[in-house]
Amino acid sequence: MLVHSRGARRALWAVFLVLFLPLFALPLLVVLGASFATHWSGVLPSGLTTGNYRAATRGEALQALITSLVTGLTASLLALAVGTWAALAAAASRKRHRTVVDALFVLPVAVPSVVVGLAILVAYSQPPFLLNGTRWIVIIAHTVLVTAFAHQSVSAAITRLDPAYEQAAASLGASPAYVLWRVRLPLLLPSLTAAAGLCFALSMGELSATMMLYPPDWTPLPVLIHASTDRGSLFTGSAIAVVLMTATLLVLFAVSRIRTRASYR
Question: 24: pLDDT confidence band, cut at 50, 70 and 90?
C-alpha cells in the first residue's frame, strides 16, 4: 500500500467501511433480506419464506430471465464486433478522423437513455425498417447504448499494443489480414473479453430505453422488477432482483475465467 503508517491504514479502512456499507452493501443487503420476507414492519424482515424465489424462477419471471440473457448476450456480441471494428479502423486513420469516430460512439451515452429509446422508436416505426413491436428493436437499443463502452475499451487497448509484434509478422511476409487475425486480435483478447463483460452487465440492468420499446412477448427482467414493485409486490420484486444479480454475476464470472486464460496466452 502507498500508506505505510499503521494508524493511517486503519483510518483509511474505517473511511472505506463508512462509505461502502451505507452506499453499496446496505442497499444490497436490504434487497436480499426483503427477498426472503413476507412482511417488514420493524428493523428486520419477518415472515421468512422461500416462496418469493419460487415465483421469481417460474413462469413469467423465468421467461423474462431468458429474455434478458438473450438480449444481453446478443447486444454484447454485436457491440463488441462493431466497437472493435470501429476502433481498429480509427487506429489506422488520422487523428482528426479518430476524434470524430470517438465522438460518434460516445454520443449515445452522453444523452439520457430514454432519448436514445425515443430516437430508435421513431427511426424503426416506419418502413423500410419496421421493427417496432419486435424483439429486435430492444436488442438494437441495447447495442447502441453499450457499443460506446466496447469501443472505448478496445481503443484504449490498441494504444497500449507493442507494434513490434505486428512489424515482425509483416517483415516475415504475413499479409495484413493474417496480422490482424493471428497477431493483433489475440493480443487484444483480454480487453475484448473485458469489454464484452462490461457490455453484458450494462445491458442486463438497462431499463429506461427498454420501457419505451419492449413488446409484450419480449419483456426483460428489469421491466418485470419495475412492474412487480409498481404493483406493490416488493418482496417478489426483490427476489427477482436477486435472481437478476445472480445471473449477471455468473456470466461475468465465466467471462472473467475466459479473460484470465486469454491473459496467459
Answer: confident
88-102, 110-124, 213-227, 239-253: least confident range: 88-102
Average pLDDT, the chain: 88
Count Cβ neighbours within 10 Å for each residue of 99-117 and write b for 16 or more, e otherwise. eebbeebeebbeeebeebb
For residue 211, pLDDT beyond 80: yes
pLDDT in tens, 220-235: 999 999 999 998 889 9
Q: Supply the pLDDT for residue 2.
A: 57
Q: Which cell numbers hold the place of 93?
A: 486513420
Alpha-carbon span 218 to 241, nearest angstrom: 18
Give me the CATH topology for the region 59-263.
Answer: MetI-like fold (1.10.3720)
Residue 17 CA to residue 88 CA, distance in Å, equals: 42
The ranges assigned to domains in the chain are 59-263
pTM of the model: 0.87
Give the orientation angle of helix 234-263 with respect to helix 26-35, to 10 degrees.
Answer: 120
